[in-house]
Amino acid sequence: MADSIDGNVVAAKSFARFGVTHMFGVVGIPVTSLANRAMQLGIRFVAFHNEQSAGYAASAYGYLTGRPGILLTVSGPGCVHGLAGLSNSMVNTWPMVMISGSCDQNDFGRGDFQELDQIEAVKPFSKFSVKAKNIKEIPNCVAQVLDRAVLGRPGGCYLDLPTDVLHQTISESEVESLLSEVEKGRESEKLASVASSEIEKAVALLRKAERPLIVFGKGAAYARAENELKWLVETTGIPFLPTPMGKGLVPDDHSLAASAARSLAIGKCDVAFVVGARLNWLLHFGEPPKWSKDVKFILVDISEEEIQLRKPHLGLVGDAKKVLKLINEEIKDDPFNLGSSHPWVAAISKKVKENVSRMEAQLARDVVPFNFLTPLRIIRDTILGLGSPTPVLVSEGANTMDVGRSVLVQTEPRTRVDAGTWGTMGVGLGYCIAAAVANPDRLVVAVEGDSGFGFSAMEVEVCWLYTETCYFYYYP
Ligand code: ADP
């Protein structure tokens, strides 16, 4: 047939048609042609040395853009290396799609080249997986993985493309009609709105609280809820505490920021309004001794499962931005503001001032050879001098990350990506590349421990190739 095309072209066309603009990965048999075809259709392919790092990049790209990050791998070992990125996206609840070529379906079970039951292998690390068993299934499978990655709680999805399917052919006109048909049936978010009685309850709890606290995390950042959060904080005068990646949704240097008085804020608050952050290890499971045993949690999360797991005083299932809009509407009718002389606000503010001045005294000392504080102060001051748009800060390595979290200042949303919920080390260079690709207008600054850097150090070459400039300073 004059207009016949193979499975590689069908897959590339499907990704391009359904809005994919970037892919991260490592090419080889049987997916090299897929990558080439994708590039011919205008998709930028970012080639890595190892699928692990490419997978980390895809996961961070999903978080930073709100669109699934795409990882392309070869079969067998390539797929196994990619599981690092896929699992990282699942645990952080970031949207990502891993696509792997797989061995010929007719040779499976006979010891074929790079043979693996990949659908089985990805199961514990993905929210949805599908194999295109025939070329005609490719468009629908592509749409399914792209949609499922972002629907509800975001996460990782997997698409298996067997070698024989990639080599099958079909007429171009048939593919066009398949694509149009699939496009019409694509799934979109259909979340029920939160009942107004629940919104009223949440606002009444905040209004009556003596020591309220607003906590927000990377789910709120993913939801792009920064304007709604800032309005809520400033209208009510309630102190706030960001999680590490929630930093910047409301600027760290805001007068109501409680980060420098974290122990007091979480230990003494009586109502905690937690938006897009799990009560997991990072928030001490919401339990004593770090939290008061009487604290009433109001949790806002897109995942009903999450609310059921934590059993808060009040759970609001929905998109953070939308729920906050409803909360703010409710407050607007009868606004309240604690004011700076409120005993709780004043106590937090006093503690913040004490702790900040203690830290500044330590930071003011130039310690050579460097300790952690001196270089971090230099980096902080340099970043602050750059103005807006502020750089994306990539941080990993246990000590570097911990000290950096308190010293480095985030004033804009989604400008910090770090080892995250899983404490995944080795993510740094992949995250740098993802951040540069996702935010071409922002500088990317990576502050990494040498161990974290070493996991994926070879990808520094990819940084050079795919970003316009890459400066590298190493303090042993
Ligand atoms: P952090 O590490 O910043 O504490 P977590 O990763 O623990 O944050 O929690 C993020 C939470 O945000 C997850 O439970 C996830 O279900 C939720 N989430 C993801 N997207 C949204 C959204 N659009 N609106 C509300 N919650 C969301």
Automatic annotation (TrEMBL):
Its EC number is 4.1.2.63. Residues 12-120 form the Thiamine pyrophosphate enzyme N-terminal TPP-binding domain. It comes from the Eukaryota. Keywords: Lyase, Magnesium, Metal-binding, Thiamine pyrophosphate. Its cofactor is thiamine diphosphate. One of its GO terms (biological process) is fatty acid alpha-oxidation. It holds the Pfam family TPP_enzyme_M. CDD domains: TPP_PYR_POX_like. GO terms for molecular function: 2-hydroxyacyl-CoA lyase activity; magnesium ion binding; thiamine pyrophosphate binding. GO terms for cellular component: peroxisome. Residues 199-325 form the Thiamine pyrophosphate enzyme central domain. Residues 400-463 form the Thiamine pyrophosphate enzyme TPP-binding domain. It catalyses: a 2-hydroxy-3-methyl fatty acyl-CoA = a 2-methyl-branched fatty aldehyde + formyl-CoA; an (R)-2-hydroxy-long-chain-fatty acyl-CoA = a long-chain fatty aldehyde + formyl-CoA. Belongs to the TPP enzyme family. This is 2-hydroxyacyl-CoA lyase.
